[in-house]
Structures are given as structure tokens and as C-alpha cells.
């Protein structure tokens, strides 16, 4: 019993010494919905964390929790970080929105950053990226490369971010081939390699020879590789998983944003805001164009430069699936319309789950 | 030298109490080795995992909050398992209970008064009990295997929840995101004044005590135990196996449904596509770790919850992978089950000449 007591005391001393040695200026903490090894969404956020760590060196301490389920566990995980002296906490999944807001109320001095949500507070900012800009480009590539004129789209949940991605993809494809056909499969998950692979197989069996995905695993690309079809990486450059199948990938680069916001915490200039940045700010990056003929690469690069220069893919004429006009010729949809999008553009071979 | 297991003549009462402690000790040793191998200080790892969560008020409360639904569901399941009814579907009963309980604040958001919360809880109990009665009736009427039917209804329940939060019950002001509107204050289970604990904890402890009295002191408790151990003897005493099947399933489902309602009302304040990180399945482990005894279940639920909170603590403080935390949880269960061998068997060390050595007391 005595030795147990001694061990406990020693452990306390160790723990205390450990935290004293890491006296950094700012502690930034991250909550991930998936494992850091998903090679998609959570992996990219962790890459951003590591980039910030490298940038600030000893001035920054970081910590993360991975595979935190959305629900009551999330609130506890966020509160743990707030209590453990984190100055800024990044909660990187939509389902953390209400838990983040709840914990933020209890800790007014801690800064919170919630990815992909829409609720803010004095100490809660939101951030997201204009992924649809990249989706317009890959839609163009799909229409150029597809021999069957049919692409398959593996979608997660019918939320505006995903719906606007599907629409941007088809608008890009229609700019090359007005009769292009798009089939959508909803897998109702962000990360489910089994379901995603089944969806990819079903879409290829239905005639799609290019697969696009708004889910995080590498499974659809691997299926495309096996079946001789092609596809695009999601969130991360997935070329190592499908060296012959990947045309390009829409890469989320969170590093610059994390560095900027942590710097603001250090300077005391951090303010709550909603950041929504894309290709021009470098928050969305296109992976190298591979397995493509030169003229298609040139077209993709031209579109990329055009969007980075300020052109919005959701520029009219845009017709909704039901035939009504969403935007007249030359009219651009405003941010609110894109962020709240709950309708399909004309030409999608699917009914939007409502 | 050889080690032999020798069957005891009867259960060792001493070992029944000691074996969980031995198991915790072995887990601590194994965890220490794992921490060292993965390059972390084993002592501070063990401290963070098993002790630190108990030293701070908020993490202690978080442990209780995590343990509460596990204990409540496991209490109900113990009635099933004691009476030889294999209800594996508490997860589904939890979900349907939560749906019934949430129907009031979602469909009638303006119904806000002192009756809101009690009504929600009653609906939650009814919902869970009705869901549990499906496999019970199938068993008593058609002799189906309740393990399969109760398990399969879990998937039906979670898809029903999924459908409702994406469709009819979706928050109209929520940009199509799959979640219900937030509950009003009247529909929120409040916290005990001065603490961050919700009233779910005292309600659960009360249920456990009542259940302990029923099992230990009443004819119903006797019926449950007799029918589990010897249905033939029970039928001579005039007990009906079919009625008991219905009763035990309804009890387990009702308590799981109550847990579901208290979880969405007290912790989440809304319905989400997933409202349970597997509480209904983990509660099966809790029920058996607690030896199907309400007080044992309270201890087991608390220890299991501690392993979750401790797992998070080592992740966030030491950068230990969450896989290692899961491995330690798994080891804890492994050692507890392995040490239970000592209740029925004793270890004998046999020397080379075959002479029986002293029985080890470990």
C-alpha cells in the first residue's frame, strides 16, 4: 500500500513536471471526427495542426483528440480542452456545432473555431472552404475524359455543402458537354470504406466511367483503379492509393488558416468571424493533374486561374431541376444562396432527399 | 513445475470479491507496459488514466454522466438475463425511447409547462417498452429466437431515427442539416443545483435501489431468479414463463427508453442522426461485470465510464493514440473475465515429483 502511495506521488510529480516544461505562449487544441489516419478530412486537419506547430516552434503547444463521436462525448471532449488550458480550440466537424456553442458559453476567455457550421458567438468563429470551386474544375475534367458521358457521384449527406458540390460538378461538366449525365448515390456517412466501395461499384456497373466522391475514404478511388475507371481524390491527395486512376484531388489546406488564427490569438487581435475561402486564398488547392492529356490539363489550369482570379462557378444561366431559373445570364449567386443550397441544377439523374 | 486449475467444490466468496481487484491490478501492470513500449511515462500514464479523472470535480461528474445511461440500461437488462431472456436490443430500445420522449418537444414545441418533462419521460418508458415487447411477443407466440429479433430491431430503430431527423423532424431553420430543433428549457432535464450533474444520476440510483429490493425481497424477484435457474421448478410453483418474458422485456425496454429520453433531454437537447455511442451494447458488458446485481452494476458502470474518461485524458494530455486507450479498455474486460475463473477454480502449483504444492492464495 505504501509503495502504491509512493508511486502515485511520483506520478503526480511527473505530471506536474511535464506540464511545466511545456510552457508555450499559446496552446491550440483540435477535435477530429475521424482517425488522423483516414487520409482524408481529419488527416488534412492534422496536417494543418502540424504545419502550425512547425511554424511557431516552441511558442505553440498543440493537442488533439481523434475519433470523437458527434454527440454527448463531443461536449465533454471540448470542455476537457477548455479546462486543460487550451487558448484556442478547433472543432472540425459539423456535428460539433451545438456542443461547441454550449462549452463556449462557459469559457468566455477561450477562443473556439468551428469548421463547417453556421452558429457563431463572441468567442466562436466558423470556417469553411469553397470546395465547390474545385468541384467545377473536376466536373469539366470528367466531361472531357468520360467516354460514356456518365459520371458517378458518391455523396454523404444532403446538406448544402454537399449539394452545392454536386451542382458545381455538373455545371462544370455541362460547360464542356451540355448533355452530360450525373448519377448520385447517397451513402449517409462521411467515412465508411465498405459502403463507399459498394457505391463506386454500383455506379461503374451503371455506366459511369468517372467517379467523384464527397466522402473521406480512399475506397472509391481504389475501386476505380481496379475497374479501369477514373476518379478524384477527396480532401487529400490520394494519388498513392490510385496511381493510374486519380486525375487530380481537391486538397483542403488548413495550415495557412490555422497559422493566421493562432497568430491573432498570440497578438490579442483574434475576433469572431465566418471565414469562407477558396482557391484564391490557398485554402483549397488542386493536386497535380495526372493521367490526363495535355489539352485537358491546360483547360483545367485555365479554369483554376479564372476562379482564383475571382470568378464564381455559380454564375448564370443556372436552371434548377424543376425548370425554374436560379440565376439569369451573368448573374452570380450570393454566398447565402450557395451556403444554404437545397436544390439540384437541371440534368442530375437523382431526386434530392428532402 | 506445472500450474493446474482445480475445480472448487463451491463458489469462492472471497474470490468473488477479490477477482475484480486482481483484474484491475493486472490491467494497471499491462497498461504500464504498453505506455512504456509506446514511449510514454508509465506512471504518469496510469495516473492520468485511472486516478486523475477522480480528482477533479468536472471529470468526476463527467464520469458519472457517462456511467448513468450504462447503469440504467444494465439494471433493466439484468432482469432479462436473470430470468433467462436474452435481450440484446437495448440499443434500439434506448433509441425508440428517445424518439417517443422527443416527440413532445419536437411536434408540440409550444407545450411548455411543468408537465412537459415528466410526460416526456413517461413516453420514453412506453416507447422503449413497446419496442422491447416486439421480440418478447414473437418469442412467446411464435417461439422465435429473441437474441436475433431483439438485435435486428436495433438496426430498424437507428434507421427510423435517421429517417426522422433527415425528414419529418428536421429543424426547419437548420439549413437541411440532419438534426431536430433544440428543445425548450421546459423540455430540458435540469442539473442538480450547484453541480453540473443532471437529475438523471439520482433517478438512476433510485431505480437501482428499487430494483435491488424487488430482486432481493419480493416474490417477483424470487420468480425472476427461479425461472432463470430452473424453469421447470418455477412452473410447479405456478409461475408463467411467458408472462415473465413479457415482464422482463418490458422492464428492460422501459428503463432503456428512460435512459434514451434523459440522454437527449439532459445532454444533447436535440435529436441527432446518432444519439448513442453504443450505450445499449456496452450496458450488456456492464450488466455481466456487475454480476447482474444492481449495486454491482453501479460499480461496473462507473469503472467502465472511468476507462472512457481516462482514455480521453491520456490522449489529450500525453498524445497517446486513442487505439491504445481502447486496448487498455479491452484489457480491463479481458482480465475481469479471466480472473472470474478463480471463483470456480483454484490454482495449484504441481512440483516435478507430482507432489501437490500449497494452494496459491494469489
Summarize the structure.
Chain A is α/β, with parallel strands linked by helices and 354 residues long. Chain A has helices at residues 2-21, 41-56, 72-83, 97-106, 131-145, 160-176, 193-205, 219-227, 255-267, 294-308, 335-339, and strands spanning 26-31, 60-65, 88-91, 111-115, 124-129, 150-155, 181-186, 210-213, 230-235, 246-252, 274-277, 284-286, 318-319, 325-327, 348-349.
What does this protein look like?
Chain A is built from eleven helices and 15 strands. With 354 residues, chain A is an alpha/beta fold. Chain A folds into two domains: 17-129, Response regulator (Rossmann fold, 3-Layer(aba) Sandwich), CATH 3.40.50; 131-252 and 283-349, Response regulator (Rossmann fold, 3-Layer(aba) Sandwich), CATH 3.40.50. Chain A has a seven-stranded mixed beta sheet with strand order 12-10-9-8-6-7-15, with helices on both faces. A six-stranded parallel beta sheet of chain A has the order 2-1-3-4-5-11, sandwiched between helices. In chain A, helix 3 packs parallel to helix 4, helix 5 (131-145) runs antiparallel to helix 10 (294-308) and helix 7 runs parallel beside helix 8. Chain A is globular and about 60 Å long. The termini of chain A are far apart. Chain B is mostly helical and 362 residues long. Chain B has two domains: 1-40 and 320-362, no CATH class; 67-319, ABC transporter involved in vitamin B12 uptake, BtuC, CATH 1.10.3470. Helices cover 70% and strands 4% of the residues of chain B. In chain B, strands 1-2-3 form a three-stranded antiparallel beta sheet. In chain B, helix 1 packs across helix 2 (42-55), helix 3 (57-82) packs across helix 8 (219-229) and helix 4 (90-107) runs parallel beside helix 6. The A-B interface holds A 7-8, 10-12, 14-15, 18, 29, 35, 63-67, 69-73, 75-77, 79-81, 83-84, 94-95, 98, 118, 157-160, 163, 188, 339-340, 342, 353-354 and B 41, 43-44, 46-48, 51-52, 56, 58-59, 62, 65-66, 162, 166-167, 175-178, 182, 263, 267-270, 272-277, 309, 312-313, 315-317, 319, 321-322.
